[in-house]
């Protein structure tokens, strides 16, 4: 797009990256008085680049004449109908997201149960007569083959379904178009993939992907059609534009969180924290409605499935179980301890992210072929099973079976009536292990067991995140944290011999919060999610303290996991505010220039040539007064998008030059909506030589009041306008309202606050 | 301000109100195809007017040269210091708000205890020997005299401290300057006033005013000085502007909610729902921090005060008590019942608001003298006591004393070991009555008692809201709702004889939510507040359903109570979105015109004359190129505020005309900050005749990049820009960047969606 303009003007600021990797310490001195620390000499691939391959979404309505005419025709009652449709769609999003979550839960439970029973029977058989290596082989092979299928479909059919999908949804809500991210195919692969990953015994959770699934459902329903299935239900046509779709996707993401954790308020806050920039009361209320419906659907269906209809006891995919207020109260003296746990969580989280960073760099360089990715996933699955088996085998931690709630108790070498306690952690789905760590009575775990488990699981989870399978990182993080938190609690009660620290479950909860906070660095929403998942409000304050500490400590070292992956993808992501020290920059220095402008009445050939120019590939064009005398730079009259021009050309909306008095063919808004969102490329539209000489009148289709800034506006001011209104193009004009430049997402996203002050990322076509 | 411009152009739309009260049905037809319903002939005073007396706040930074120079001088480390200061201020806001809440709670508890014990002893004495009218007299006199003091200080010292303060804070966060609203004096009067109102036995709560108190504390602390006390601590000078102050006031309001209900997340959502337009992650996290600190402070101090230190069991001024999940689970069959309760709550809430509306109109017309206001407050206090006494006296509902938790059991004519059950509702602070209704075991109340109580309390609360005392409406609403909800629950169990409806406390809770929702129409935040106050997440879904139903039903009849009072004050309040049918209007029709512009180098006399012009009283002036040839309309160069001009004139920043080469005196940002927020009026600045002939160069002080819109922009587009960025002035320019008009808050707030389509309110100086 205009977004793709490489800056031609030399910048006086630090520009780091592949293209120009020079250390301009003098320039830094101009910016800050601090002496900058020396940077490492080798700057890794991809880190300080912005990719030009990502396009933006149009979150600002193009208020052209067609749109205004339609809006003016709609009366008050019709607007009420639109509003009711919005609510209906949100209810449908909630219901469907809840049902998808139910499906995942039930299938995983059954398949995983099958697998664990099979392996348990095998182990029980071989424990007596020796030859446990067969059991290991069975376990590892089962895992590897299930994961192979899960990885195959992701790697070969829809690679965007890999991972948790949270970074992708963050980008989408931020306004970056990630190809295929909200397609039906992605949903199918995601759902199958996550089931296979969890059943395959990887150190992953099924919660994160729910957010992505909810978003896809929302995007699909709100459009009333599926372009993949070529089915158009002819409903909800009013919502076929980026602005409306984004609002529903927010609701879908919230419904996903809500279904995953039984946390409807947390879901709303997640959507707002990660996505929204403009807080709108009605929108928020609708998002909340979708969230509530989602958790309620899940709850009802699962209650019926589990045979105790109407008791509504499973609001989410994971339930942390009841934390009784009496038993687990905290006192004011424990607060410093919680803060200390936050510090530990921050450090361990940063370590996790740093390791994962190097791993991801390695993967980008060497494991980019799909076959290799599948092999790696299988390897991880086999290793996970092996590590688990060896740990269980070596563990001599036996616990009485009576009174415990272990799902698949492995006896192994324990006495009769006892079970191997290491197996509760490894030989189980991670969700169940988390709940066990929270609620098993004191003394259920040997400290040695917990320590070993923490270390091994930490490395396994770190290795697993980033594999080509769909899977989330929430549950493994919680599990690691719960393990060391419980260990911490046990140590405390050993050390102090006081009954006040008696319950290690409380510390397991705080550890889980600290570890998760240290890895993903979410704040308000995570506090509320944890509060809702525990069903207990009293823990709010310590959880907040722990998360805040973990975030502050973690941010000192490296970024959060999701932000890190977004940056590794070189996505032009706009943060909340412009870098604090960027007041020295103005729109003049930031903007892309020169800008390709169109005249209000333009020759078709010119339009086609401009659109076909692959070297610039602009997406938005200022429309200027069509005075033939003026040069390119001229008074701004409007702004028109590539997608609009494509539709105009496709429908041959133009008149012969010799006969300008003829009326140009009229288009309706419906023509634009039908083409949305997959506009054809310019190459697919045939324009004959005669047609090239025709004229096209853009007045009716251009947005006559695009937002503009003067050249003197500072970067933070431009940024605020751009971010608050969700813009894609911002025209920079001079004192006479003449176009001098264009600011797009990439022009703003490239400025970043590095360790040495303001940095400017390079742009690249990768 | 320019905000004060009366529109000179005739409008083609409905203009209703005092100034031109004509029914233009033809015009309505142009807008909608629906046939409009006939409006009542008499349109009450004040309803369809916007007052011009309210000024706006500047939530958009004036990025002039001085500001940019300062920002550029600040390096990264210094910005970190600013950030740390923000956190420190938020912590202080939380602590102080918590302490103020503690103070109110402890004083009210002691004074009210004293009063009730006194009256109870008296009643006990006279029950035996007859002459209970003395007791009534004592009770009524005590109440009336306490309320008299409370009303006197409000009416004569600081009238803005009346009521709950929530409408005022809503306006402040919306960007309307309400005089005195965040002053220290207001806080003192508010705190004393609320104590006296509650002790005086009015049907009021002490929770709503906490929101106002928190806001004042925030505004005070963040400025590092008190203009009332004339103390400047020379700290936090960076925060002396409207933008920063607003952020802290949001945090203060959240801290207030948090202290009132023990609901930190609810507090954050309240601030966002009522105030913020731009969602900023860092800001939200700070607000949450202040909220958490506030409830934690309150909890700690009250725990220590009540002698059970460290148990942290009183997170808010009102605690709904523990709702045990086992005992009070709901089933799916109850959901239609809850929805029905929501409908009842919506209707009763609308009735409450409608009655209060007529009462307020009456008060505006006839009770505007402070003495009369005090007399009315005393009358209400006496009547409240009398009604309570008569109800208690007539009630024959006796309950066994054993096992009940009544604070001041009145025996009256009951047998020994029994108490009068009506007295638990009337002879107690409303907070305690609410908790009793939630938690007293089934059978504690006679249905007759509850019915009578609901009716009487409904009218008393309705009469009380709007009195010249500081007091909130949350608790009375909850109390009314809890009473009829409990009655409803009892009826259900009578009717069905099923044990599933056994616990009427659940229905009391839903009734309370429905009634409160029906009156105030808050949505997401109220759901979360109720969830947090009950400490129980499982009720989230039914509470949401109830609140949503109550809001939809209530909105069908009249507006919410706060919005109604804001409208009765004719405040130019900007809602979330422009009216849906306003696409037919453009900036050209909406803007105020003509605009008074200044030249970049302007004669001092001209500036003084323009500022002194009381007929226009503009607050923002576009600065245009100082070409002497051009007429008034000319290319826009910047925007300067009245307050900035005042500071310039005060510091004599100008040079003689004959000697333009001389350098004008330099001002620092500090000079503007020192004058903030009470800029002197122009009349207090003496400018001699010689000085009038001097020239003043505005280039350095004006904002060189004001936001602009073209004339063709539609009203929703202008509205979105204005609201999202928190603007005060938006310059309308033509194609040549020449100033043609100015859009201010009043130009946007006057368009409203009435029953018949788009309405245009009139502007008046009242």
From TrEMBL, chains A, B:
Where this protein primarily resides, as one coarse class? membrane
**Membrane topology classification:** Multi-pass membrane protein
Give residue ranges for domain CBS: 702-760
What sections of the protein cross the membrane? 87-108, 136-157, 187-205, 248-271, 283-305, 335-359, 448-467, 473-495, 507-531, 537-558
Which of UniProt's keywords are assigned here? CBS domain, Chloride, Ion transport, Membrane, Repeat, Transmembrane, Transmembrane helix, Transport
The record ties this protein, via SUPFAM superfamilies, to: CBS-domain pair, Clc chloride channel
Q: Which GO terms describe its cellular component?
A: lysosomal membrane
Subcellular locations according to the entry: Membrane
Does the keyword Magnesium feature in the UniProt annotation? Answer: no
**What domain of life is recorded for the organism?**
Eukaryota
User: InterPro entries annotated for this entry?
Assistant: CBS_dom (IPR000644), CBS_dom_sf (IPR046342), CIC-7 (IPR002249), Cl-channel/antiporter (IPR051280), Cl-channel_core (IPR014743), ClC (IPR001807)
Q: Name one Pfam family in it.
A: CBS
Q: Name one GO molecular function term.
A: chloride channel activity
Q: Which family does it belong to?
A: Belongs to the chloride channel (TC 2.A.49) family.
In its UniProt entry, what is this protein called? Chloride channel protein
């Amino acid at each position: 797009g205009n977004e793709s303009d490489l800056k031609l003007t030399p910048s006086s600021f630090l520009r780091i990256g592949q293209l120009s990797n020079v250390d301009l310490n003098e320039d830094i001195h101009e910016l800050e008085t601090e002496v900058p620390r020396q940077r490492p000499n080798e700057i890794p691939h991809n880190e300080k680049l912005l990719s030009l391959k990502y396009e933006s979404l149009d979150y600002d309505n193009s208020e052209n004449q067609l749109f205004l005419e339609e809006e003016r025709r709609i009366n008050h009652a019709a607007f009420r109908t639109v509003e009711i449709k919005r609510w209906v769609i949100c209810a449908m999003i909630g219901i469907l997201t809840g049902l998808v979550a139910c499906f995942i839960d039930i299938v995983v439970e059954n398949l995983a149960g099958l697998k664990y029973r099979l392996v348990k029977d095998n182990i029980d058989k071989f424990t007596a007569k020796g030859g446990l290596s067969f059991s290991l082989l069975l376990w590892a092979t089962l895992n590897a083959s299930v994961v192979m299928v899960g990885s195959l479909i992701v790697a070969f059919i829809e690679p965007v379904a890999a991972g948790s999908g949270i970074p992708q949804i963050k980008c989408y809500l931020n306004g970056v178009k990630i190809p295929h991210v909200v397609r039906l195919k992605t949903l199918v692969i995601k759902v199958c993939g996550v089931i296979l990953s969890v059943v395959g015994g990887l150190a992953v959770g099924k919660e994160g992907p729910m957010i992505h699934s909810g978003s896809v459902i929302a995007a699909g329903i709100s459009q009333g059609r599926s372009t993949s299935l070529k089915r158009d239900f002819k409903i909800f046509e009013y919502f076929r534009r980026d602005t409306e779709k984004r609002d529903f996707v927010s609701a879908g993401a919230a419904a996903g969180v809500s279904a995953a954790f039984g946390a409807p308020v947390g879901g709303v806050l997640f959507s707002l924290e990660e996505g929204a920039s403009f807080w709108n009361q009605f929108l928020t209320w609708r998002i909340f409605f979708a969230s509530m419906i989602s958790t309620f659907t899940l709850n009802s269906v699962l209650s019926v499935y589990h045979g105790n209809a109407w008791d509504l006891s499973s609001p989410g995919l994971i339930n942390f179980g009841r934390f009784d207020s009496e038993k687990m109260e905290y006192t004011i003296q424990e607060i410093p301890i919680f803060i200390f746990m936050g510090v530990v969580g921050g450090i361990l989280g940063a370590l996790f992210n740093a390791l994962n960073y190097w791993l991801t760099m390695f993967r980008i360089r060497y494991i980019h072929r799909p076959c290799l990715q599948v092999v790696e996933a299988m390897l991880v699955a086999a290793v996970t099973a092996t590590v688990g088996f060896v740990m269980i085998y070596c563990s001599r931690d036996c616990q009485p079976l009576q009174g415990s709630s272990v799902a698949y108790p492995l006896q192994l070498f324990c006495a009769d009536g006892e079970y191997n306690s290491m197996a509760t952690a490894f030989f189980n789905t991670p969700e169940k292990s988390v709940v066990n760590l929270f609620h098993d009575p004191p003394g259920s775990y040997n400290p040695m067991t917990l320590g070993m488990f923490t270390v091994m699981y930490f490395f396994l989870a770190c290795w697993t995140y980033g594999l080509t399978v769909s899977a989330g990182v929430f549950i493994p993080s919680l599990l690691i944290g719960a393990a060391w938190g419980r260990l911490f609690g046990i140590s405390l009660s050993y050390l102090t011999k006081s009954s006040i620290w008696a319950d290690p479950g409380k510390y397991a909860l705080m550890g889980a919060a600290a570890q998760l906070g240290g890895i993903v660095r979410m704040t308000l929403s995570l506090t509320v999610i944890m509060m809702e998942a525990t069903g207990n409000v009293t823990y709010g304050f310590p959880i907040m303290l722990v998360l805040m500490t973990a975030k502050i400590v973690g941010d000192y070292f490296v970024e959060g996991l999701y932000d890190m992956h977004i940056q590794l993808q070189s996505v032009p992501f706009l943060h909340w505010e412009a870098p604090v020290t960027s007041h020295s920059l103005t729109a003049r220095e930031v903007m892309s220039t020169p800008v390709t402008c169109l005249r209000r009445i333009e020759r078709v050939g010119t339009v086609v040539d401009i659109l076909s120019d692959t070297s610039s590939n602009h997406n938005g064009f200022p429309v200027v007064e069509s005075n033939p005398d003026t040069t390119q730079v001229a008074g701004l009259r409007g702004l028109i998008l590539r997608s609009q021009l494509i539709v105009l050309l496709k429908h041959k909306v133009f008149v012969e030059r010799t006969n300008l008095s003829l009326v140009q063919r009229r288009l309706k808004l419906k023509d634009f909506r039908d083409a949305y969102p997959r506009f054809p490329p310019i190459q697919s539209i045939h324009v004959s030589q005669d047609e090239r000489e025709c004229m096209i009148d853009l007045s009716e289709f251009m947005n006559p009041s695009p937002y503009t800034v003067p050249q003197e506006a500072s970067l933070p001011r431009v940024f605020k306008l751009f971010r608050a209104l969700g813009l894609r193009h911002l025209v920079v004009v001079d004192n006479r309202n003449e176009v001098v430049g264009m600011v797009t997402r990439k022009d703003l996203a490239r400025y970043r606050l590095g360790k040495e002050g303001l940095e400017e990322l390079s742009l690249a076509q990768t």
